[in-house]
Amino acid sequence: MGKNDTITERQLTVLIFVSLLSPVIRVLPASAVQLAGRAAWLSPLAALPAGAALAAFTRYARKNAPEGVGLQDMAQLALGGVGGRIFGVLFALWLTFYGGFVARSASERLLATVYPNGSASVFIAVMFLVALITASGKTKTLSRTAEVLMPVLIIVIAVVLLSAIPDVTAESLLPVTYRDAGKVLYGAVPIFNVLSAFVYFLFLTGHIRKPRGERPRRFPWLALLAATAFGVTFFTLGTLGDKLAISMENAFFMVIRNLKVLGVAERVEAVVVAIWIVTDFIFLAAILMIVSEIWRTVTGVKKRGAFVPPSAALSAGAAFLIAKNAFTLEAWSDILIPGINLILAVIFVPAVMGIGKVRRKY
Amino acid sequence: MKRLIFVVLALSLCLTGCSSGLTILSNYRRIENIELVRTVTADISGEGVNVAVCGTAGEESVARMYEKTGSSLGVALGELILLPLGRDAILSHTENMLIGEDMARERLNECLDYIERFSEMRLDTGLLIVRDGTARDLLKGLTGEDTPAPDVIAGLARNISKTGEGYFFTCREIASSLADNGCALMQCVRAQEEEKLFEARGELNIVPAGFAVVREEGGVEFLSDQETLGTMLILQKYKSRNVDLSLPGGVVTVSVDSVETKVEPVFKKDGSLERMSVRLALEANVICLKGEADLEDKALREAAEMELSRIFREAAESAIRRSRELGLDYLDLESILERQAPLKAEETLRNWEQVFPILPVEVEAESTLQRTYDIVDPPQDAKEDQKPWEKMIRSLKGS
Amino acid sequence: MYRTKKDPPAPETGEDAPVTAAAMEAVFAGCYDFETRTLHIGGDTKNPVTLCFIDGLVSGSDVAEQVIKPLTDPERFGSIRGAEAVSMALGGSVYVYTAKHREKLGEAAGDLLNGFCALIFDAERAAVTFEVKSQQRRGVEAPKEEKVVKGAKDAFVETMKINSTLVRRKLRNPHLKIKEFTLGKRAETSVTLVYIDGFTNPQIVEEAAKRVGRIDVEGALTSAAIEENIVDNYRSPFPQVISTERSDKFCMNILEGRVGLLVDGLPLGFLVPGTFSQFMKVPEDHSGHFIVASALTLLRYISVALTLLAPAFYVAVAMYHQEMIPTRLLQSMIEAHASVPFSTAVEVILMLLAFELLQEAGIRLPSPIGETVSIIGALIVGQSAVEASVVSPVVVVVIALAGIAGYTMPNQDMGSALRLCRFLLVLAAIALGMFGVAMGCALLVYHLSSLESYGVPYMSPFAGSEGQHLSRALLRRSMTVKRDREPELGTGDGGEAKL
Which residues of A touch C (CB under 8 A)? Predict the structure, then answer.
């Protein structure tokens, strides 16, 4: 990686935050409500400690790692050249596929909400073209893009959630008693799963420059992400009730469909859906960047640029072929994707980092 | 490479949408071709469904009605939107759906499902049941030369809360209630023939006709006006209503502008549920007086307040009675009990279906007459036995 | 007395050649404004020297009074010859405050082009040059392009010396350095680099000097010749150099830690590094009340969004997302559009083009006519277009709104770049609706984020500055409160100041 292409801890964290807003909306509130019912609005808060613990562990594990070393380098140090490369290839393949899934899900969301009877291929193609351009650029440029877009996204979600307040009813959210604790924790699993995706971004930590005394401050951002998840679940659940919310795949956008903003715009759904596509695009570009970064480290090539187009092509192929229809995609979304993600992000990565630590490799 | 991608992207963008023929997205519509649908009706027609819509193009254009019958609501609406010649009917601005009695009884879920699923429709669409006739006929009768039916219905939606005769439940509220309680309330309307006081209006007028209770499995029950009022009170949908109170000396018309409803469970000492308590706190203002009633008289005012309390209490009682008769908890008593005492009432909630029909519900109502505005009743000189200090207060009031 | 130069024999005319009258005449052969005259020092006919100058660049009376008169005075230069005469001329016997000893022909010729006259001593093969510049130059006036409401009204002029004097008067600091460079293979334009030594980040100074030194143009006669050669990404339409005709704005930026550039012949000062937020500021922000100034700054950011997005948003909504338009408004839009034969896409593009045409016509025509054309044109064309049902009134309103919002940009280069992007976003909206607008905006933000100016992220403090100084871009603090300097500029003291 070039000396020029460095970012700060904060920039990486903002990139993570903006990227993960995409799966937050995809997963919530349906997954949490299915598991926790009416108490699901508390699940994001319950997921936060687990997410924070994972963040703390990864921070501890790479505390002494030298500057310019990313997760792939750490894996190669921990597992040796061959083992580390297998680890890298596994993640690269998975993330290539995951990128396709992200693009396809975003396209299906567009079709289900504002572009009925359209073609998912158009959206996938455009998203990959734009992501290809951005992923071919520098990491710092993508991070800065995320930094600029973040306030816009926060303002949009805040306005949307505040506008939904009048429709929230207490009977849709209460009662919640201590007996619901189990359900709340159960509902926290899919949210923790979303939060844990931040470990993929550790592959980019080689780009981090460490100014004097700066420490990674992931927790406030994870808390903000959890607060966003809380807001989305709380207002959707409070407006639709648990049973109706479960029956809808894009319940959050269904709530938005009824919002009126000061009599100027009636259904702000199209705007919000379009703005939220930006998070999918950032996530997709970041995934392509991570994949090319892994291939660069695995092959020992100096620049990662050459790996971006083939990764994007493979990922786009996955997006087109992953599912014939929305039903199959839903099955992927409900079981396989979270399952694999949980194994790789929550078990594999900490395990490899732990091995490296035990073997005093960094 | 980046430049090449840029060029490809720019070209692909430029070549795709400059004309309707080349646009890649299916929901492109020329704005001038839009026929705006604001009201949809649905009636059973033989084995199928008859749908009618009232569409307008521009602000000045005449409202037009189109109708179509199909095997289902979706099929009929799908064919109907092709009817306006050379125009694209869009359902995104549908404010209300009028549903015929039979349709509501047999195929209400079809309407709800269509609204939830079809991305053009919105969940805050008001759903109304048309009594004593078909929805189509009502829509046709309402449509006048200069007064489109949707405007008339929108007027009713705005004013119904002021007269306290009902509440327009939205698709979201109905679907949510059906999912939670297995039943839901809907507003009923009926056509009323009225003299055409001005030429531009339609042949018919639309008036509220109380609430209906729809079951998830199908079926409709209609509530009387008193039961509708009671239901609104308990569900806190009540806004305002004018009520005549017969008192010694005359009839006082009061506007009941505020009702605070408290529904609470009352438990016995052993922790078991004794009853549900419904307390209504009403505030009213005198808006008209017929006769010579002395509203300065405290006793008379108390009598008026008692009369007012009685009317509203009886309304609430009748609503509860009817709910229990039907075995449908559309008043959300279970939800209230669950919310207020989730642990204490656990046993009761588990056996709710058995408990609900026999659960004692006590209704109390308390009214306060707040003001008579600037008029002193009866006039000052009619009072002969006034004390001097009372006279002084009166003169101050007068000034 | 003056004689016209005749074709000389071919003397040595290289840059380093010795200075002789013949060589100088050879250099300026064919220049009708090049004048030479033989003088006799101290009135002694055996003691001739050649005086040469460029007519028009020098002041005739100064030459006569301050150079010729003392030089031909027998009492002063009676029997003095050769090297002694040279040293006397340099030593103050000639009444000119700037005198230079030149032994190289190139240097002497350069002096002539800069308003000097040269006294060539053929025997010594050297010259003494005296600065006798003509005073025929535009005086300092109020700025014409950047309106001043409440502030200094001395704008830069075409003469660099005056401009540097304006700066010096405002920044009376011995550490204020004004370094001179000469640009252009043929035009040889003087450029100066202005910075405060020990305060301005030396890396930025060094980089600016390097880039200015690297400029390879025939002549730096236009601002683009400078700007495009010193920016990081010349392909980007977004301005990366702050250019201003206001000396107060120039000095304020120097005080913030930027490096300034003054070019002889251009009534502008250039400042680097240029960041997006800097283009949203006007010096009036520091003249008005800080709350009002903050509100106006916020308004400018809203204007950016409006000018960029309003037409694209309208196209997306009118073509694809009609559900967003309130019923009544949609009804009136349908009504208004019913008689328009063109699609929304064509209508908007036509109006945007018409707007640009009017604007361009207004700028190119002489000022009174130009203003009339743009105002009357906008009114009549808009009104007529609506009446003739070529466009619908809503489109006129949207395009006018976007246009007016664009005019609030303090920097016209920024306004032009935004106008260009507006077109692209409209195309994206035509093709893909709101999705296209979102993707277009994402690409635009990506492009802006990729820009850097002298190592400073273009989008700082919105990006790349740890998010700590966001308020600086959006709000102005009271002058009574100290605030952090811009960390990205890396100024010498790096502390707080009342900015």
Answer: 8, 10-11, 14, 110, 114-115, 122-123, 126-127, 130, 133-134, 137-138, 140-145, 147-149, 151, 263-271, 273-275, 277-278, 281-282
